[in-house]
Design brief:
The protein has eight helices and eight strands, in the order E-E-H-H-E-H-H-E-H-E-H-E-H-E-E-H. By secondary structure, it is α+β, with helices and mostly antiparallel strands. It is globular. The chain starts with a strand and ends with a helix.
Length: 278
Amino acid sequence: MTNLQICSDKTTDGSQLSSFPEQDHGQASCHSAFGVPTAATQSLCLPSNVAIEPITPATVPSFRRLIGLLLPIRYPDKFFAESVANATPSSLARVATWYEETPSVKRKRDEASSNVEAKPKDATSSQNTFSTPTSAQQKDALRTVVGGIQCRIEQLPFHPSQPTSSNTSDTLTETRSYCYIQTLALLSPYRFKGIAAALLEVIVTTLCKEQCYAGMTSVYAHVWEENEVALQWYVRRGFQVSKEVLKGYYRRLKPDGARVVWRDLGVNDHLRTQSRGK
């Protein structure tokens, strides 16, 4: 089974794995996230039983297993310690959680439905009641971490799109803040539902909304030069692709080059963030 790997950080030996992005096939239902939606997840097209949440001590084991399954490398403990270092709305480490009814809850709902079969159906009664769950339903639901993203903030004296060979001539007078996507991954059975795109957009929304990221200028990542599908995935989401290839970036891949993909945060990103917060 092929799993979605959009981006992975460098491994301890300096190599980085290829990435396989989610494609835009099929339509996802435009509902709010499971339970009470946050400002970051409002207006995103997601199945109603999916939540994009900060990684917490409770979900980091599942996130760790997910990364271990999708990426055949061993991330250091420090990486996962950083995952839960900021389990707040300003977190840049998120998981996509898929909620499903437990058998007992489903049985009770089916029994309740059978008791009202004789009544006329209307638009409300014909809906699956689990699509707008109560807090009790969320507590009793089966939770599966199906995707995740983790980023870090970097202070650089040059724009990430600038090749290292030209950094000397293009160095800025002062460093600027950039968000680097370390890992973005999704299990293949949950592709084509807008989940990977939502993970990315939640990060962008967080960068635009939270005061602690004021002055953030861009989001960027590295993509294997031969992974045209991944490059186009980023392009469709407003990213630009560097013309120059960073040779020797991937030690385990042939060819070994990477391209930088970046998205400068602009007025439209901030306007979308404000509209989602309303």
